[in-house]
Amino acid sequence: MSVSEENYIKSIYKLEEGQDSVTTNALAYELDTKPASVTDMAKKLKEKKLIAYEKYQGINLTPEGKKAALQIVRRHRLWECFLVEKLAFSWEEVHELAEELEHVRSEKLTNRLSEFLGNPAIDPHGDPIPDAQGKMGKLRTQTSLHKSQAKRLEVMAVSDKSAALLEFLTAKGIRLGTQLDVIERYAFDNSIEIKIRNQPAFTISEQVSKNIMVKAI
Fold first, then answer.
1. Of 32, 33, 80, 199, whose CB has the highest number of CB atoms within 10 Å?
2. Distance CA 90, CA 145 (A)
3. Is residue 49 scored above 90 in pLDDT?
4. Could you give the residue ranges of the DSSP H alpha helices within the chain?
């Protein structure tokens, strides 16, 4: 597969979660391209038996396409781990770099990288890493901070990987494993006042709280 084809496959995999099929418009928006370009690529991927596609009926990965997508996701998330753990990049810096490194398709290199890192189960943002066979570990029980009713929580993941959000969380001292106490929830704007140990309490917006995944402790 070309780099472009891999990007399409990975985006279809992402959009398929929780949906029956992926529309060409949704895929065009995700990839910032024109629907006509998506249609052209869909025909190519169908010929390679990586997707099932009929005009006006949406796009789905075939078993072979899903296997390919999971390998791309595996490489991406392992490289993120490497960049954070071994090269001391911050979690907001690694996504764009991993977008490039994920296209290095050496299976031997990928497996060696995983072994070198101790075969991690999650990436720096809390997302599960598929194993060499493409099997994804079960997601740990978690919900968004916005929906959680518990008073004491641990940060398990972030659902938005944008640099802007991750930089904000870093500035506030929030990262994977951070334990926090909910002081108050404000009905006016759904903002939440929280406190982290040894820090003054502060308030975060509804938009931020929806993207912080937590579990009760």
1. 80
2. 22
3. yes
4. 3-16, 24-31, 35-47, 63-85, 94-101, 107-116, 163-171, 206-210
pLDDT tens digits, 80-120:
999 999 999 999 999 999 999 999 999 999 999 999 999 99
CATH 3.40.50.980 fits 3-61, yes or no: no
Residue 175, amino acid: R
Whether pLDDT at 72 is above 90: yes
For domain 143-216, give its CATH number from 2.30.30.90, 3.40.50.11010, 1.25.40.10, 2.60.120.830.
2.30.30.90
Give the amino acid at 2.
Answer: S
- Retrieve residue 139's tokens: 């997601």
CATH 1.10.10.10 domain extents, the chain = 3-61
**Short-list 39, 60, 40, 37, CA closest to 50:** 60
